[in-house]
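dumping this here before i forget
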Amino acid sequence: MGIKDDAVEVRAQGWRTLAALHGLIETELERSLQAEAQLSVVEYTVLDALSRQDGWHMRMQQLARATALSPSATTRLVNRLEERGLLTRILCDDDRRGIYTELTTSGVALLEQARPVHDGTLERALAEAHKTPELAPLVDALPRLHAAV
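structure:
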């Protein structure tokens, strides 16, 4: 294997490690959020993203980027959450084609119930991942990544 091949393999191994950590965390979050708040991870992500916006609303394309979903998958997700009364859509005043998605009072209440479940599960999953030698350096790097952004 040449030097270039070695570099590719190192990056590929790093990616596999990151994917393993992500999978471990997402599995635990999914289980806990479903059991305690009847939310999927991506539904929680939508509510959380909206709560962090001034006015608690976002355009649909912003929401798609925040959730890493396609526009059509985002629309289906928003439809489900709207049917549950957790968010609503509002036409943009200055652009009739623009649609905002906004948290409802029920959405805020469910998010407040779900946030401690999410945060506690995340903390436990990271602590568990830290026990795995291959994952520990990545878990250790997370606070530095946040500080760099």
